[in-house]
From TrEMBL:
<keyword id="KW-0479">Metal-binding</keyword>
<feature type="binding site">
    <location>
        <position position="136"/>
    </location>
    <ligand>
        <name>NAD(+)</name>
    </ligand>
</feature>
<keyword id="KW-0057">Aromatic amino acid biosynthesis</keyword>
<keyword id="KW-0862">Zinc</keyword>
<dbReference type="Pfam" id="PF01761">
    <property type="entry name" value="DHQ_synthase"/>
</dbReference>
<comment type="similarity">
    <text>Belongs to the sugar phosphate cyclases superfamily. Dehydroquinate synthase family.</text>
</comment>
<keyword id="KW-0170">Cobalt</keyword>
<feature type="binding site">
    <location>
        <position position="178"/>
    </location>
    <ligand>
        <name>Zn(2+)</name>
    </ligand>
</feature>
<dbReference type="InterPro" id="IPR050071">
    <property type="entry name" value="Dehydroquinate_synthase"/>
</dbReference>
<keyword id="KW-0963">Cytoplasm</keyword>
<dbReference type="Pfam" id="PF24621">
    <property type="entry name" value="DHQS_C"/>
</dbReference>
<comment type="function">
    <text>Catalyzes the conversion of 3-deoxy-D-arabino-heptulosonate 7-phosphate (DAHP) to dehydroquinate (DHQ).</text>
</comment>
<dbReference type="InterPro" id="IPR016037">
    <property type="entry name" value="DHQ_synth_AroB"/>
</dbReference>
<feature type="binding site">
    <location>
        <begin position="123"/>
        <end position="124"/>
    </location>
    <ligand>
        <name>NAD(+)</name>
    </ligand>
</feature>
<feature type="domain" description="3-dehydroquinate synthase N-terminal">
    <location>
        <begin position="61"/>
        <end position="173"/>
    </location>
</feature>
<feature type="domain" description="3-dehydroquinate synthase C-terminal">
    <location>
        <begin position="175"/>
        <end position="319"/>
    </location>
</feature>
<keyword id="KW-0547">Nucleotide-binding</keyword>
Amino acid sequence: MSTIRVAHCDADYDVLVENIAEAVPKLAGIANGRRLALVSDTRVFELYGRAFASVALDEPVLVPAGEAAKDWSVLAEITDRLAALDVKRGTPIIALGGGSVGDVAGLAASIFKRGCPIIHVPTTLLAQVDSAIGGKTAIDAAGQKNLVGSFHHPLLVIADPALLDTLDERQMRSGYAEVVKYGLIDDRGLFEWCEANGGAVIAGAGTARRAAIEHCIRAKARFVSADPEDTLGTRALLNLGHTFGHAIEALAGQNLLHGEAVAIGMVLAFEFSAELGLCPADDTERVKTHLRSAGLPVRIADVGLIGPAIFAAMRADKKWTAAGPTLILAKGIGQVFVARDVDASRLAAFLA
Ligand SMILES: NC(=O)c1ccc[n+]([C@@H]2O[C@H](COP(=O)([O-])OP(=O)(O)OC[C@H]3O[C@@H](n4cnc5c(N)ncnc54)[C@H](O)[C@@H]3O)[C@@H](O)[C@H]2O)c1
Ligand SMILES: O=C(O)C(=O)C[C@@H](O)[C@H](O)[C@H](O)COP(=O)(O)O
Ligand SMILES: [Zn+2]
């Protein structure tokens, strides 16, 4: 078992990398005699819900699987169900599932009775290494990814790598894109380790998956602790590939997974950086080769889209200000930076 601390003002929290059978009894202390509401989707609840029987209400709040959960109607349904279950203000809510369950349950927790604590129990690789930590919550609206959301940092995160044994390979590959992201941001050593061990992380062979999870949780905790609400320009680096990726996701719909869109987005960020003369072409090729070898899409044509449509969708992104796009660009593998002075016409020409 490992414990990784995330600093957040006066409410620091722990990420426990631990078997749920051992971690759940610790929730009894937090519950303090109350039964906790639990939000999940049907598949995940059937697989792991019973592990929470001693601390959770008998009836779970179930949401649709995947990105479909991140919708106004589902958010309203969750708050209605919490009210029907007579969940009291301040009672912690457990989010058991992937990033979509975590994002919508976190948002519901942040507004229900003006705020209930959230405990994340992430069940996908993506959620364990990324979405369960850092307090970003969101739903999609008006055709845009993560348009409506809040910052609501968790009370506790329990990441049990064994839960990933039932996750399908496509979801695993999608989460792996966010693992590679940490290497590309500021950890060339991690990227090189991924080149050698990525297959084992995806397949769950040996100790590689657990090692990757712990390493990435520490990386995310470091970024979030330094800039908890994304205001200082350092946490923004975690958005590598996401302005491209969110536009691609919005256009492709729910056929494309988040990590798949981010994989293409990271390649585009490196290719655009190379075109601007900022990044060696060799590094760009190496990123593309590795993501492709991990079974991820790397070109917009791989997902049937065209550049001008992506450019148009990018203009709606939260990080596109009156001054133009803010992008995370690269000087090389492990050396990315926030570029606020990106020439929109140059970007349009690149995508065309
Ligand atoms: N808040 C953040 O900081 C943050 C960070 C990264 C991504 N995200 C968001 O996370 C979402 C993607 O999350 P995701 O990749 O975890 O996928 P997901 O939550 O959208 O879908 C996961 C799918 O796998 C199934 N599943 C989950 N765990 C399982 C398990 N252990 N065994 C078998 N099946 C299982 C679910 O039923 C579901 O069908 C996107 O909406 C993305 O925007 C948020
Ligand atoms: O935690 C962060 O900060 C991130 O940017 C992590 C991303 O992987 C994640 O997809 C996040 O939800 C994107 O946030 P957004 O602010 O671009 O909506
Ligand atoms: Zn992401």
